[in-house]
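forwarding from the other thread:

> can someone predict this with adenosine-5'-triphosphate?

sure thing
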Amino acid sequence: MAVYTDITEAELRAFLSDYDVGELQSYRGIAEGVENSNFLVHTTTGQFILTLYEKRVNRDDLPFFLGLMQYLAERGVSCPLPVHRRDGGTLGELAGRPAAMVTFLEGIWLRRPMPVHCAEVGRGLAEMHLAGEGFGLTRRNSLTLEDWRPLWEKSKDHADALDPALRPETEASLERLEAEWPRDLPEGVIHADLFPDNVFFLGDSLSGFIDFYFACNDALVYDLAVCLNAWCFERDHAFNLTKGRALLAAYNATRPLSDAEIAALPILSMGAALRFMLTRLYDWVMTPEGSLVVKKDPLEYLARMRFHKAIRSVTEYGLDR
Ligand SMILES: Nc1ncnc2c1ncn2[C@@H]1O[C@H](COP(=O)(O)OP(=O)(O)OP(=O)(O)O)[C@@H](O)[C@H]1O
Ligand SMILES: N[C@@H](CCO)C(=O)O
């Protein structure tokens, strides 16, 4: 459950008094998510999501995240819109945490996405990349190549307990990624965490993206590599070629990939798999026993790392070449 910081009704009423959102009717903590504390807030004018930003979110990055959601929403991307206070600001403080409210997005996330949904994500991701052009603020990706080894150093002593293969394979992956990481790919604003739980659907149609708290400037195709990892593998860790084809074709139809971007897909996908293995391993080690947060399995991403390492041609992802 992701309510690390609880709030009282009195605190919430005082917070809401700076907004034109009507009277508080009810509120409850939202169990899903692992990063921040989220509350669903009902007022006489509608429902909103209130987020209290926790450990991994740097306060200085919040104007980037909130500004980006606003920018994308204004340019036709369906995503939460930060709610403005009467003084014009969107960022406040509640229970000693930075806090903001955003509009509620209709839809549900899919536990078992099908190829049709992968195609929707591919199209939506490409549209988001195009819509992000010209956004005035920038943010470095804080979970990219340079950040992986320090993260690994903090948790590697616990790797053997999970799987004896984890340590040697991660060390070998880090070396290869450090030697081969591509540098000159087209960059822009990326979501960087576009997992199924961050994409809402109404029926088979994508209804919106949430959770922009890893968004940053980086190679656009890295976002696609994250999606390949998050959307196109089955529970037994097998890659689903039909899903890969659907995701990549739909992306490519909206924002055509260059030859360099296509060639970089295997190494970027391997890097993306390592990134999620590392943050999951870190959380696995650091989250206290008995805590209500659902820990995610780092080994799912060891399996994906193996798959990407063995790729010989991008046709294995479903790209026609
Ligand atoms: N704008 C929104 N509209 C509707 N529901 C939302 C919205 N934002 C968040 N939620 C709900 O809150 C849950 C957690 O939100 P979110 O994924 O942003 O949290 P997080 O702690 O940052 O999680 P993550 O583990 O994905 O990084 C979502 O699964 C969704 O149910
Ligand atoms: N989407 C991530 C959690 C947030 O970084 C994961 O599944 O590991």
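The mean pLDDT is 95. thats all i got for now
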